[in-house]
Amino acid sequence: MDPDQxxxxxxxxxxxxxxxxxxxxxxxLGFGFYVATFLLSHLLSLALSCTYNSLxxxxxxxxxxxxxxxxxxxxxxxxxxxxxxxxxELTRDRVRGQEDWSWFNVLTAxxxxxxxxxxxxxxxxxxxxxxxxxxxxxxxxxxxYAGAVVWDSLGHFLPMVxxxxxxxxxxxxxxWMLLKAGWARTLFWRANQWVMIHMxxxxxxxxYYMWWVTLTNWGEISTHVALPQRLLFFxxxxxxxxxxxxIWTHRKTMQLLNPVDWNFGNKPAPLNGAAEDRSKILxxxxxx
Length: 288
Description:
By secondary structure, the protein is mainly alpha-helical. The chain has one domain. It has helices spanning 3-6, 20-48, 50-54, 57-85, 89-92, 100-127, 132-150, 157-163, 169-180, 187-216, 218-224, 227-257, 273-283; strands spanning 260-261, 267-268. Strands 1-2 form a two-stranded antiparallel ribbon. β1 (260-261) and β2 form a beta hairpin. α2 (20-48) packs across α6 (100-127), α6 (100-127) packs across α8 and α7 runs antiparallel to α12 (227-257). It starts with a helix and ends in a 5-residue tail after the last helix. The chain crosses the membrane at residues 26-49, 101-120, 157-179, 191-211, 231-248. One of its GO terms (molecular function) is ceramide binding. It is found in: Membrane. It is a multi-pass membrane protein.
C-alpha cells in the first residue's frame, strides 16, 4: 500500500463535535433528558401505581433509576446494533473511525453516566448503602466515556459496542417492577426473566468479541489510543468479563428459580396484589 494512503486523514464528523461548548451542551442534554425521565417515572408511578406508593423511599428511588436505565438501554441497543451492522467509518476503521451519530451517542451517554453516578451516590449517602459491583461498573463507564470526549481522536466502534452491553436493562427494569408488584409467579414474568438471562449471556459473548477486536487491532490501539484510556478500558473490560458479568448472570438465573429481591436484602417476592385483595374481601364480615 502507498505510504501516503496509510497516513491520509479519515473523513471527520461535523466541526461542531470538536467544539467544547457544543460537546458540553450535548452532555448536558443527556443529563437533563435522563433526569426528566427519572422525574416522569416518579410522577406517573405516583399517579398510576399502587405498588409504587407502597414502597419505602429507597425502593422508590431504585424504581425510578431502573426506569431511566431502561430508557438508556433502548438508546444504547440501537447505537450498538447500528455500529455492528451498518457500513460506516466505524466498521472501516475500528480504532479511529467516527461519525456524527456516534459522537451524539458518546456525548449523551456521558451525560447519562453523570446522572447515574450522581443518583447512585446520592442514594448511597441518604440511605447508607453501597453496591460495590454497581459502583465499580458506573465508575468505569463514566471514566471511559469522559475519556472518549477528552481524547477526541479515539474511534467510536468500541464505545458503541460497549453501549450494547446495556441491552439487558429494559428487561431488568420489567423484572424488578413486576416482582415488586407480586407478579413473580406469572408466565409473563418468567418469560421476561428468560429473555433477560439470555441478554446477560449475550453480554458475555459481546465482551469476548470486544477482546477479539482489541487483540486483532493491538498495533493501532497502542499507537492511536492514549495510555490512560487504554488502562481504563482494559481494566473495566477485564472486571466485566471475569467478575461482574458472571456474578450478575448467576444472580438473575437464581432469581428465576427463587424469585427474591436481591437488591434489597433478598426479600421474597410478595404475593400478587389482586390475590391479596381478594383474600381481604373474603375475610371481611358481611354487613347485616
